[in-house]
Specification:
Length: 752
């Protein structure tokens, strides 16, 4: 038996807390304002059924039931429900429920009204549209009442509809259980529902329905609510329809839910102000980003404060639009994976397994492979889309395809097995879906036009990440304020041989020339905007396939091994080669270069690197000198590191997350735990920003999290100086930053 508080529940707790309980817990834990409450978990129901002997009685009553016989079904259902509702709940169980309710009252300093709702442990999962056993009791007050309503929720597991559904879907009655959510009631002055995106087309239009009083008025269809449409791309309210809200469902002094007639003027009054709509849209975006899918959200406002009561995925979207493109509905889905580079591409499949086969891929083909390598870049450029078996959001295919602007889906597990040469397919790089055939696309110019006219200026700089010089022009066209990360390893991996082989073969000059040429493309394209070049971060496993790579040590865990600055300081001749390439650019007059050291873990590394830079005759004053903060060590000793005279730091959250929470970023078995907003990661980031600000050191982020709106918002609030995003995310990040900055200013003005 157990009581679980909402803040103790996560999305994986459906078996115990039910779909609704898990959903509320997840929202609460992601800074969505959900009213506090607890869940009487599914074990409690089992215990109740066991102790009272009802489990067997109910089993007997259901045995042999013909669910197609409606009368019989209704009869059995009411007998079971009566039995449950009249059975004595064991004292221990009652006590636990009462204690939890008391705690909730203590928090408020008075006996509170609660909503008691059933939370099914299987049937209301996102892929089942069944909504039968949704018993909800509002305005419940008092210990006895709460216990009573919990029992009523339990009995709702046996409504005729629920029994029928289980039989139809092959669920065993003995296996099902139910949790009950008891949540503080919001005394709603206004409430309603909102779709975070358009429920039919999937466009980023937030649709809000609102009425006075409790939301039941809308849900039950008793009123014509106001409807507001907010365009999340253009950031403005585009439609307001005032409905006639003839009645309001509310609570009377006794706490009873009553329906009140509204006078005609009140019925026609607009429910939500512009400010309230913006506040709701803010949460809509947070929630949609969190779930990575459009949501249907129930909300309410009490004394000016917004509460989110429930969120579930919208299952009605049939057509979808991606950056101005619309797919026709009804296509067969062949495969799913991670949408790694947005856009829609279609063409003939070409499956390749190594770089020797890249000539198979012709202009407009869809490149399908296990995982792309730098040698495949020429084919990636010709491809209309890319699909891989392996990889996550930071794999080679994901990074490079985003830079090239080619739609890509990674991590499909079996693309090379299922997709065959010559098949015609369509790849949706945002949603991560591969369709059979060439799906018709309707182009839409609206979004681009809007952006072209609105160059937002933000105080926090918005930069862009680059990995291949070929991507520089496209990245520059985003209007970014500079390059916050130029990962040179993709360029190096694309060379004919391993860097150390050049050096061993006495061809260091040739290697330097290649580095110089690649770097120059980026530095020149962006001049005079700053370009932070990161020195080589080459994990041994990734470099082994190169000619000369056979000398790479075999490591049990390359992520923790010979990579980053620790490697460059041992193979310091290589580090010197990089510095010489950069020095050539500085000597040519480029004043926009920064050098960034990867994987720093101690002060000595920074000191040594700096010494080598100076020994190579590159005055440190002619460049910006900084480090990646991507190990917990560097974050925890940031005070010591800033004393080494660094100009900037940049958070490498891809690594910082994996090292902080012990989750290998490339290991799909633990991918569900990978969370850049884990409190431990956020605490490290907060600490580093604080210390850097105190010491005049610039802060930035260049990990993948810098392309996620919900993370960016947090970082701006913490005072980060710049955010470096993937090229495709620059525009969105800029908008999020602008909005967050405005919000901070507004809040300050209000405080004053
Ligand atoms: C990071 O770790 O966040 C980062 C930007 O570096 P990389 O992904 O190249 O390891
Ligand atoms: Mg890193």
């Amino acid at each position: 038996m157990g009581i679980l508080w909402l803040n103790e529940i996560g999305k994986d707790d459906i078996p115990l807390a039910g779909g609704k309980g898990a959903n509320l817990g997840e929202l609460l834990n992601n800074e969505i304002p959900v009213p506090n409450g607890f869940v009487v978990d599914s074990r409690t129901f089992f215990e109740f059924m066991e102790v009272t002997g009802l489990r067997y009685q109910v089993g007997d009553m259901l045995r042999g039931l013909n669910v197609e016989d409606t009368d019989e079904l209704n009869r059995v259902s009411s007998r079971i429900r009566e039995a449950i509702e009249s059975a004595e709940i064991p004292e221990e169980v009652q006590k636990e429920i009462i204690n939890a309710y008391r705690k909730l009252c203590d928090e408020e300093g008075e006996e509170v009204f609660v909503a008691v709702r059933s939370s099914a442990t299987a049937e209301d999962l996102p892929d089942a549209s069944f909504a039968g056993q949704q018993e909800t009791y509002l305005n419940v007050k008092g210990e006895k009442e709460v216990v009573e309503k919990v029992r009523k929720c339990w009995s709702s597991l046996y409504t005729p509809r629920a029994i029928y559904y289980r039989v139809q879907h092959g669920f065993r009655h003995e296996d099902v259980s139910i949790a009950v959510v008891v949540q503080k009631m919001v005394n709603s002055e206004k409430s309603g529902v909102m779709f975070t995106s358009h429920p039919v087309t999937g466009e980023k239009l937030c649709i809000i329905e609102a009425a006075f009083g409790l939301g039941e008025a809308i849900v039950s269809g008793a009123v014509s609510p106001d409807t507001y449409v907010y365009d999340r791309v253009a950031k403005k309210l585009v439609e307001v329809n005032i409905g006639e809200k003839k009645i309001m469902i509310t609570k009377n002094e006794k706490g009873e839910t009553v329906t009140v007639d509204l006078p005609p003027e009140k019925a026609k009054e607009r429910v939500l102000s512009d400010g309230e709509i913006e506040e709701l849209v803010k949460f809509a975006e947070l929630i949609e980003n969190h779930y990575s899918s459009p949501q249907d959200v129930e909300w309410s406002i009490e004394r000016g404060k917004v509460y989110i009561l429930q969120s579930r995925p919208i299952t009605t979207i049939k057509e979808r639009k991606v950056e101005g493109e619309k797919l026709k509905e009804g296509q067969k889905v062949l495969l799913k994976g991670l949408g790694a580079s947005p856009g829609i591409g279609s063409g003939k499949v070409k499956v390749i397994f190594n770089e020797k086969e890249i000539n198979k891929v012709e202009e407009g083909d869809v490149l399908v492979t296990t995982m792309t390598t730098p040698d495949m870049v020429p084919a990636m450029k010709r491809a209309s889309a890319i699909v891989t078996d392996e990889g996550g959001m930071t794999c080679h295919a994901a990074i490079v395809s985003r830079e090239l602007g080619v739609p890509a889906v990674v991590g499909t597990k079996e693309a090379t097995r299922i997709l065959k040469d010559g098949m015609q397919i369509t790849v949706d790089g945002e949603k991560g879906i591969i369709y059979e055939g060439i799906v018709e696309i309707e182009r839409e110019e609206k979004r681009e036009e809007v952006f072209a006219k609105s160059k937002i200026i933000t105080a926090t700089e918005v930069k862009v990440n680059i990995s291949i010089p070929d991507g520089a022009k496209r990245a520059y066209e985003t209007g970014a304020d500079g390059v916050g990360l130029f990962r040179i390893e993709h360029m190096v991996l694309g060379l004919p041989k391993h860097p150390m082989k050049y050096i061993r073969d006495g061809e260091i000059e040739e290697y330097i020339q290649k580095l110089y040429e690649g770097m120059k493309v980026v530095v020149d394209t962006f001049y005079p905007k700053p370009v932070w070049i990161r020195t080589l971060d080459a994990p041994t496993d990734e470099f082994r396939a190169m000619e000369g790579g056979e000398n790479e040590p075999i490591e049990a865990n390359p992520m923790l091994g010979f990579r980053g600055i620790r490697r460059d300081l041992i193979e310091d001749i290589h580090f010197r080669a990089e510095i010489r390439a950069i020095k050539r650019l500085v000597d040519e007059g480029y004043t926009n270069i920064g050098i960034m050291l990867p994987m720093v873990t101690n002060v000595e590394e920074v000191r040594k690197a700096r010494r080598i830079i100076e020994e190579e005759g590159l005055p440190i004053t002619k460049i910006e000198f900084g480090i990646m903060v991507e190990t917990p060590a560097s974050a925890l000793i940031i005070e010591d590191l800033v004393k080494e005279g660094i100009d900037f730091i940049s958070f490498g959250t891809n690594d910082l997350t994996q090292y902080t929470i012990a989750v290998d970023r490339n290991n799909e078995n633990v991918a569900f735990l990978y969370d850049e907003t884990h409190p431990a990661v956020m605490r490290l980031i907060e600490h580093v920003i604080k210390v850097c600000r105190e010491n005049g050191v610039k802060t930035s982020i260049c990990g993948q999290a810098g392309s996620y709106p919900h993370v960016v918002e947090k970082l701006v609030k913490l005072g980060i100086d710049s955010v470096s995003a993937n090229p495709d995310a620059v525009e969105t990040v800029r908008e999020i930053i602008a909005r967050t900055e405005k919000r901070i200013l507004l809040d300050r003005m209000r405080e004053d």
